[in-house]
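Protocol step 4 of 5: obtain the predicted structure for the target chain.
Materials: sequence only (see below). No template structures provided, no constraints applied. The aim of this step is simply to have a reference model before the mutagenesis design in step 5. Sequence pasted as it appears in the construct record:
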Amino acid sequence: MYITYCRNQNTVDLEDKTSYRLGLTGGDYRPTWLVRVSDWKRVPGEAAVDGYHTLSYCWEQSGEVVKRENDNNDYHLVDNSEHCVVEGYDADNDFIMRKSLSPIEECDLEESIDPEVEEKNNKYVTWCEPISETTTLKHVTYEELLQQLCKDFQVEYLWYDKVCIDQSDKKHKSDEIKQMHQIYCNARYTIVLIPELIVYDLEDFDQEVPKHGTNARKTFLSELETSFWMKRSWTLEEVMMSKHILVVGTDVNMFQHSLYTPDTPPTAKDRFSESLIDFGGQIKRNNGSVNQALTHAHFRTSTKPHDMIFALKNIFASLFDDIEMNYSTDVQETFNDFYRHIATKDLSILCFGANLSPNGTQRKQSTMGDYNLPSWTGVDGLHLGDHVYITTHSQLSYTMDNSMKMNIKTNHYWKIAITKYKYGPYYFSKEHTPESKHDYLVEQKQKIHFNRSHKKLTDLAQADKDTILAEWFTNMHIDTGHFMTHYHYRQHDENNPLTQLRPLSLTHDCEEEECIVLPILFQVLHPTFLPVDKYKSIRGPKRAIYLLPVFCKCPNDSKSEVQYKAVGVYLLGNYPVDNILLPFNIRFNKLSPTFNWNHCVGRDDIDPVQDPKDILNILFENDYHDVPKKFIIE
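Step 4 output (structure tokens):
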């Protein structure tokens, strides 16, 4: 596919970030080769004394993809100089057209499709239809387009894989791929090229929108979510290793930086600043966990299936002594080796919930369905996006075997009975239609948010069951980003009040099955962002959220041993944050102890601020079994 780049760009940034962007220096590491932008020559990396930039793009959007006629059935790219650089683009008069994914479906079948439009739709991601006499089009190669873009943004040296990696030298290619995490995390910033991003109406820059600032920025972020770039495996690695990114569309751009990096200026936060940018730096500071990458990776793809794993290996380079990139290895073996290895290093792989909305529809479309992965990989669900610290009970041990089974042995576990939430995805009745569920939950969430923001807390000790469940539904979504599907309720009596019930988010409806909760504590450090003006924020204190993994007994089809599936998480609660800077609506634990983790086991007599090991001992002190049990997780 071919793309278009307009030189007179607009920015959706809410403030001028040019000086900050140009002042960035990057790290000390230099790639083997770089492209010198002034003459587009490949030069040694040390030539970039003042730093370099990296590029993140979709290979399929840099020319025409042609399948080779060989035994490998792989592809190569042909660039016929049909990319376009637009001079003097007039947004009020000229038109930027974008590829339609389903042109036939969008037309009346009785009408004929303009052959010229159909041809462009099959060849271009975006193209310009100039009306203004001052607008000119220049057709160029992809590299010429990149050179012009870099000059416009004052980039002197660029790492561009097609030029800086010798594609014909397998050893050199393998060595360079192993260093990609270093290449991206040491760059001054990464240029992310997403041609689908377009501004259609200049008035959107003046239209104020809550949370986003302007309608232009809101549209930009919405279109970015559905872009081809957001679906690719390698681009995930590239952005997670970067500290700063400049997203460039056809005629609009946005600069964003990590809010996790010290001494960064305030910015309008979005999904990049919250969870994606600078993950590599977080890993180095021991502030990143496996679940954070898998929450994105399980919904991305690549031309070669092996690359889905190779990109992940680069993200977790510190966990792999030798990142081997061997495309001749069986694909299933490649997937199995990665997940088996990563599970031995980090049990946050178990920290996932349902990938479902309350109406039962999938929130994101998984790309992992062809690889026969076990339940503990979380491929049937959606991993939490925040950093997770893991603490296991002192009497728990686990191993991974070659058949992809996780074997957990422990003396401590809960056997629980759960109930479907009647406004969740697994409950169906004439009274609880998808539409009625949606209306009820929206109404309840708005009411709860309004009351909390105005310091009006529900007296949960006097509340009925539906009210308490609505509060927990809201908390589950705030704390984890997931929706409650079930709840666990210790029988209501004087010793076990209704307020002890807790929400679960499960990938399967296990109401009729045996459910087990094991003593593996997920301490989720949920970031808070403190507003400094109407739209900009800085990183604030974190608050800890506590969860446990849930496992469901599998039907025993003449198997010699009972086996279980990993199905989701059990939300215990959190602890109060003693910081007056935090908004009141996330400090409500101090006035409502129901939401403290210790309340669920009737231990309001203790301070909820405890060491994680002590938390596990308290939670499971009455659930000791003389004979340790082995749980086989398939």
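Step 4 remarks: The longest helix spans residues 434-453. The mean pLDDT is 85.
Proceed to step 5.
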